[in-house]
Design brief:
Two copies of one chain form a homodimer. Chain A is built from 13 helices and five strands. With 264 residues, chain A is α+β, with helices and mostly antiparallel strands.
């Protein structure tokens, strides 16, 4: 990090300060979010870029506490239901398929909306919109956690949210006043993640584990509020552990996306 | 939009102002981006959330003009090669697979990294990182275009960037001083994209085309700098046209992702 970034008064602007100080918040004060703030968050999501101007995403705001608790049960995280604001962002080509049908497009052609790249585009749209909402929330001092865990049971989530064909869950986001102050989680050296003109040959880095030694050490020093009883494993040890005991394929998104009408 | 948003001096903060005024920039001044700004953009990308802390994305900064022109040829857009900064963000589980192998994890287990949900997670990671870079750039007054078009020929892009197994392109991003000033592109009414507690039944909206009438009209009034000779088609007409003449499945991402070693 350059000297300019070490002194926070010298961030080029407050957005950069927000982006460089991102940390996941998993404990929220019960303070409600005002309607005005909620509107800003939703408008920021809508302003995200959308591939081919398809606008092929939607979001479900979960305000029903019983529903939120069912979603929290899928994600196995109590804070999902405790957050003052909870959304599930979804791929949505259902709306566009309806438009095409109303305009008299034959069903066989309209099915093109379900083709695999359309799925990919719509998926990107949903993530971009969700990230804009995250950034907007963080800029107002709110805390955010993104929720891949709610995909642990995709069929159940689809059912709970009444998602019709050509709609599919992507990620959740929980937002609220932070009730914890986690440390900034380390990132690997920039040169290990951002390359120039081509992906490096394996032979250029004899040992990836050695190459990531300082990152490993920083991760090991990091203090994780989720489990303060033991130090965090080094990054490369975390990866090795996950590879040794891979989680069962609990989230076969292609299988379930096909069930929702998408083609791969 | 609430009154508070109509007067830009009343945006809650400059980040919200940036997010609510996003527009795609497709013409860039030749002014280079300073190394310091580039570093900020890359660090902002690295600070994005990463699913399960897998850090399973990378980016290729394209500085070789001959390479940029080949990528621009795939995307069929000259501005891709004219932008002072160009990146291709990629799903990257190759790095983690190498770590697992170095740590002695048997190859069969390490293959778990190639499972489909891991692909999905890594894909989200890449989009989140790219969007953080976009927001950082826009906050500094730079213009941005996201590039799905560079995926028109995935095998060629994979080859040009020397992407090994378990690495796959997601999106490109071109950044520079804006040399155009496009209007803000309309978005549909918030109530048509963000729902409460469940996805609405089709029967709740008799005609989606009618429901989107004011959005359609706003899109029709929008002035597209890419083709100033004719008004922009209404949104629902754009969708119907795309459904009537669907693009051939030129970007079968699942097929090519499988060729890169991912499983679906």
């Amino acid at each position: 990090m350059t000297d300019i970034m070490k002194n926070e008064q010298q961030y080029p602007n407050s957005t950069i300060k927000t982006l460089l100080n991102r940390r996941t918040i998993r404990a929220f004060a019960p303070t409600p979010i005002s309607d005005e703030r909620r509107e800003i968050l939703e408008l920021a999501a809508q302003r995200a870029p959308t591939s081919s101007f398809d606008n092929a995403w939607s979001a479900i705001r979960v305000t029903d506490k019983a529903l939120a608790e069912k979603i929290a049960a899928i994600g196995k995280q109590k804070y999902i239901a405790e957050a003052p604001l909870l959304y599930v962002f979804v791929v949505d080509t259902h709306r566009n398929a309806r438009i095409a049908a109303e305009k008299g497009v034959p069903a066989d052609d309209a099915v093109a909306f379900a083709q695999q790249y359309t799925y990919n585009q719509a998926h990107d749209d949903a993530v971009l919109a969700l990230d804009a909402m995250q950034t907007a929330a963080e800029s107002m001092g709110l805390g955010v956690v993104l929720l891949g865990s709610i995909l642990n049971d995709m069929p159940q989530l689809v059912k709970l949210l009444h998602l019709p064909s050509l709609v599919f869950p992507v990620l959740g986001i929980a937002i609220g006043e932070p009730d914890q102050s986690p440390a900034l989680k380390p990132r690997m050296d920039r040169s290990r993640q951002i390359f120039e003109n081509r992906y490096p040959e394996d032979s250029e880095t004899e040992s990836m584990v050695e190459a990531l030694a300082s990152f490993d050490e920083a991760v090991h020093q990091y203090y994780d509020l989720r489990d303060t009883k033991k130090p965090v494993d080094r990054f490369t040890d975390q990866i090795a552990a996950k590879a040794t005991n891979p989680a069962p394929a609990t989230k076969p998104f292609a299988k379930y996306a096909k069930e929702q009408g998408f083609k791969f």
